[in-house]
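Hey,

The postdoc asked me to send both predictions to you directly instead of through the lab channel. I've kept everything plain text so nothing gets mangled by the mail client. Protein one:
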Amino acid sequence: MSNWLIGPLQSVARSVRAFEFGKNNQKINYYNNDEIGLLVRAYNDKLRELEQAAGQLARSERESAWRDLAQQIAHEIKNPLTPMKLHIQHLLRKIESNDSDLQPLLQSTLPSLIDQIDSMARMANEFARFAKLPEPHFEKIELQSFAQQAIKLFNEELPYIHFEQTTQPIWIAADKDMLQQVFHNLLLNAQQATEQRQNPEILVRLNQKEANQEVLIEITDNGVGISAEQQERIFTPYFTTKSSGSGIGLSVVRQIIEKHNGSIRFESILNQGTTFYISLKLLSERA
């Protein structure tokens, strides 16, 4: 008798305790037309209202994020347009007046205009890539040799990159192009962070975590570091700590790692350096 009376209340209590806003919460199935039934119907009604509110909040957050992105893109595009317009107007006046120094002026001005157009095209391409990153094409990759090849692209400019070798091969399933982009972005950031150092150092280390069947990729530099205020926004699209750059790189890196069912985090101390940690699932050599 007590189980018959208390059982439905315990079910309601479990559902209330397990409730999480914005998650896929289950309704309570109870069909008796009694006081507990009234309580269950009230709970289910509120659950439906909260699900609608969560959906509206998520849509609002997405719209707000895209508005912020649109404003930032508009700002970045407008910046070079004004000097480009002034250069062209100046050239038109020189052409109309048949000025004798038109030829050298063209030779000095046109390359600058082309560079600015290329910069705007790169920004548009980066935004398109960020807005719709393709699904990865997974293949078996030996991570140690892959990392060595990625580092070779920087070796001429960055002879101070050190790679800690492992004694055994490390196999993962990944998209080669996407993983190359991850290494390129993080090494490029490390290069820019250490440009002003007298003794710059960049260390790449691979560490197998057999217990978790994961590999940990560490990329460490002794550069300028990231301030506490900037750290909260470091993966935010179009946020950058540099005077140049679109702020897309780390956002794309995080998207790529998440599409590989991995995780990325970092630790940084201002004026001492930064380490990025990437965790990816190991793949059996026999796979």
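Protein two:
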Amino acid sequence: MVEEANAMLPLVRAIASDLVDLSRDVVERRQRLSQLIARDDEDIDPNDPYKSELVQIREELEKDARRLQEYVEELRQLGVEPKEATEGLVDFPSMMDDRIVYLCWKLDEPEVLY
């Protein structure tokens, strides 16, 4: 159980690190974008010189959101469940006494302990 989780940790750590970095960046950029746009999309003047820049920012965010989903899928394919992307919290499902338990690990921890 714990040994198997720790054996997978180098790969999980690499993916979780990428997930955390990109997730924090996307959250920050979305917050900045929402501050720039204090109105609905319909209210943006099509002649606004910043409209194309805003469209590009949104497209980049969508692309990064897809990449975040790819990181999540990579972790799930390894049999682990990401729980909090910005914190790097991951659960390793395991069996203990004929029931499923979740071994928790966070990105800054050296190994899976519990």
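Summary for protein two, as requested: The mean pLDDT is 88.

Thanks,
C.
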